[in-house]
Amino acid sequence: MGESLKDKVAIIGIGCTKFGELHDRSLQDLMVEASFAAYADAGIEPDRVEAAWLGTFSPGFGGGKASVTLADALRLYGKPITRVENYCATGTDAFRNACLAVAAGVYDVVLVVGAEKLRDRPVRGVQREGTHPYLEAGSTPPGLFALAANRYFHRFGGDRRTLAKVAVKNHRNGALNPKAHFQMEVTEEQVLSAPLIAYPFGLYDCCPTTDGAAAVIICRADLARQFRDDPVYVKGIGLAVETGWPFFDPTFEYIGFPATTAAAAEAYRMAGIRHPAREISVAEVHDCFTWTEIANYEDLGFCRKGEGRYFIEEGRSALTGDLPVNPSGGLKSFGHPIGASGVRMLTEIVLQLRGQAGARQVKDAELGLVHNLGGPGSVACVVILGR
Amino acid sequence: MGESLKDKVAIIGIGCTKFGELHDRSLQDLMVEASFAAYADAGIEPDRVEAAWLGTFSPGFGGGKASVTLADALRLYGKPITRVENYCATGTDAFRNACLAVAAGVYDVVLVVGAEKLRDRPVRGVQREGTHPYLEAGSTPPGLFALAANRYFHRFGGDRRTLAKVAVKNHRNGALNPKAHFQMEVTEEQVLSAPLIAYPFGLYDCCPTTDGAAAVIICRADLARQFRDDPVYVKGIGLAVETGWPFFDPTFEYIGFPATTAAAAEAYRMAGIRHPAREISVAEVHDCFTWTEIANYEDLGFCRKGEGRYFIEEGRSALTGDLPVNPSGGLKSFGHPIGASGVRMLTEIVLQLRGQAGARQVKDAELGLVHNLGGPGSVACVVILGR
User: How many CA atoms lie within 13 A of B252 on its CB side?
Assistant: First the structure.
C-alpha cells in the first residue's frame, strides 16, 4: 500500500440543487444548476475544468449515455468524463476517483457531479436494479435492513422508540435546510404511529426517493489559495467492498457493516485520526433507514458496538451534541437521489467547515466526515475533510 | 493541465477468456477465469491486489451490483472496487482510472477487469440502453454508423468493396486466434453477398455481440521488474467525450469522430508521439463496423482524412503491412462484449509487445495503441503502451 491522499486535493467550489420531487426538471437541468453553482462558488469559468467525474446509479433506460449526458448538459466537449457507479456509494466513489486523478498530477481542476432522477418512474424498477433476480426476488431495501435492525434489537436492546429519535433529529435539522426534500419537523408520536413499511420500520424510518444533483470543484491542494481563502482539504478517503450476500453467512450477525469499518479504517489511517469521536467535529452519514444511522455511529467508531442507541438517546449526535451527525437533515429529510447523495453530503461538510451552514451551523467545525453505504451494507466509502 | 502518465504505470499480468456465445458460463465465471489467468501471468497471489476497477456496461438487470459482483466472484473483500461505465469505451476508461490511482501513489498493485454478458438476453434491450427514448427511437448502432459511412463514400469515394477488405483482413487475423468469437476466414465475395443489415453494411460489416472477460494487473512502474523481466509500460492515455447528438449539427459532416482525434492528441502528447504512422508498431482499434476502422485510421493520424480507403486497399493495416491494425481479429472477429473489449485489446497489445502473439505476431513491435469508441462516436479512449 502506497501513499496517502492527505492534503493533496482541495475543494474550491460547491453547488447543490433543491432536492425533492422535481417532475418539471430533467437530469440535465439538475446537472447544469449544480455545476454552474459550483463554478460560481469557485469563481471559475467552465472552461477551467480539465476533466469530470459523474456519479449516477441509474441514468435512465438502464445505464448508457451517462458521460455524454453530462457533456451535452454542460457543453463540456473534448474533455475526459468518467461515469462511476457503486451502489449508494456512487457519489463518494466518483469523488474518490477524481481525487486520485488530481493527486496523480494529471489534472489541476476537476468537476465532480452526482445526479439522479428517481421520481419519474416506478420505484420498483430502480429497486430491481439493486437486487438479484432469483436470490433476492421480492426483497426490498426496507425489508433487508429491517432484518438487521431486528437482530440488533435482539442482541443489544432498543426498540422503535430508539429509531424514532433518529427521525425526529434528522427532520428537525432538515426543517432548517431550505434545500431539503422534506422541511418539516416530526414528533416521536408521529413517527411511531406512521404506517408500517417493514417491521421495525415505519414510514418515517425510511429515507425517501428523490430527484437532485450536487457538484464540487476540486483542484491540486497547492493551487487552492489561488481560487479562494478558505479551501477545504481532503484528509483521507477509504472505499471497501464486501459480499453482496451477508444473509447467507451463518456466522455473520448482520448487526453492523464491515464495509464501513474497513473504509473508515483506511480513511482514518490516511488522515491520521486515532480517536474519531474526539477528533471529528461533524459527520454526514448514510441514514437510508433510521437504524442504519445507529449502526453507522458504531461502525465509524463514534461509539462501541451496541452503544449506538445511547449515542442518539443522549443527544450526542444532535446539532448541539458533541458530534453532530447529519446536520443537513440526512437522507431521511434531505432526500436520497442515489448518485447525488454522496456529493451532496460533501457540500454540506464544506459549508460546515467554512462556517456557512446558517441555522444548522455546528460550532467550531474543524474536521468533517462523509459516509455512504451501498447495497445490503456491501459497499462503503468514507471521506474526511478538514480546513 | 498537469503531468503526464508516461512511464509511471506498468502492466505485469494479463488474462482473457475465450470470447463467444457462452450460455453455460456466468458473468462471474468469466471474471474469475480472466482474473486468475492475470494473477498467474503476473506471478502474484490474489491478496497482492490492493484495489480493483471493473469495466462493465450493463451488468444485468440495469446497472446495479457491479462492484459487489466482482468482490464475490474473486473473494476480494474489504478492498476498494470501482465500477466504471463509459459506453463502448468502458474497458479502456476503467483501465485509465486504475492507472491514475497507481500514478497517484495510493496503490502499488491493482486489478482491472472488463466483463460483459450480451448473449443471454435480447440484443434490443442492450441497444435501448444506449439510445434516447424519443430522439433516437428505432435507431440502432448499424443504422447510425451507416449514415456516416454513406456520407463518407459521398465525400471521398469508395464503396462496399472497400469495406469488405476490412472484414476479410480481420477475419483472417481472427482465424489465427484461438480465443476469437469467430475463427474463420471470409472472402470478399462472401462479405458482399451476405444479408444486408443497414446499407452499406452487410452482416460481415458488423461486429457480433459476444460474452467475454479480460483482466490486466498493473503496478507502479518502478516496482514492475520485481514481478517480471518484460513489463509493458503505459506511455499515454487520452479520453474525450463529445456530443451525443452529432446528427443535429448541420455543420458537422459525420465522416469521422472528433472524440478519437481529441483522445489521440492527449495520448500522443503524453507519450511524446509526433508521427503516429511511423512510430506506432501495432494497433487495436474499435472496428464496431468495417467503415469505423477506416475512419479510425484517419482520426488516429495513421493517414489523412479521406485516405483511409487506400490504407486498407494497399494492405498497410494487414498483419504484414507497415502498421498492422487489429491483429487479434478486432471486434469484427474476436467479438465485442462491451465492457470487456477495451481490456481485451490491452491484452493483445501486451502479447504483441512481449513477442508472445504466436501466429499473429507483428514484427518488431515496440509501441502499441489501443482505441475504443463509444456511442455514435461520442466517446473515445486511446492508450499507448510500450516496452
Answer: 16
| Of A343, A372, A338, nearest in space to A119 by CA | A338
Beta strands at B51-55 and B81-85: parallel, antiparallel or unpaired: parallel
Least Cα separation, residue B118 to chain A (angstroms): 14
Is residue A181 annotated as a catalytic residue, yes or no? no
Say if pTM beats, i.e. exceeds, 0.90.
yes
On the question of pLDDT at B215 being above 60, the answer is yes
pLDDT in tens, A9-28: 999 999 999 999 999 999 99
CA distance linking residue B141 with residue B164, whole number of Å: 19
Give residue-wise pLDDT tens across range B46-76: 999 999 999 999 876 444 578 999 999 999 9
Q: Is the confidence at residue A236, as pLDDT, over 90?
A: yes
Classify residue B86 by its DSSP letter: B
Q: Smallest Cβ distance to A108: which of B1, B241, B378?
A: B1
Q: Are B65 and A130 within 8 A, CB to CB?
A: yes
Show me where the domains of chain B are located. 9-122+211-227, 138-208+232-386
**A257 and A371 in contact (C-beta within 8 Å)?**
no
ipTM of the modeled complex: 0.96
* Pair B241, A80: CB distance under 8 Å: yes
Torsion angle defined by CA atoms of residues A52, A55, A61 and A62, in that order, rounded to the nearest 10 degrees: 120
The CATH architecture to which B138-208+232-386 belongs is 3-Layer(aba) Sandwich (3.40)
Please state whether beta strands A81-85 and A51-55 pair in parallel, antiparallel, or not at all (unpaired). Answer: parallel
Contact yes or no for B80 and A132 at CB 8 A: no
Instruction: Please report where in the chains the cell 460483459 appears, as a residue.
Output: B116
Question: For the domain A9-122+211-226, what is the CATH code?
Answer: 3.40.47.10
The CATH architecture of the domain made up of A135-208+234-386 is 3-Layer(aba) Sandwich (3.40)
Chain B CB within 8 Å of residue A355 CB: no
DSSP-assigned states of every residue in A227-274: T-SS-EEEEEEEEEE--S-GGG-TT---SS-HHHHHHHHHHHHHHT-S
- pLDDT of B337 > 80? The answer is yes
> To the nearest whole percent, how much of chain B has pLDDT over 90?
86
Query: In CATH terms, are A9-122+211-226 and A135-208+234-386 the same topology?
Result: yes
CATH number for the domain running over B9-122+211-227: 3.40.47.10
A88 classed as catalytic? yes
**Which of A4, A62, A72 is facing B243, going by the closest CB pair?**
A72
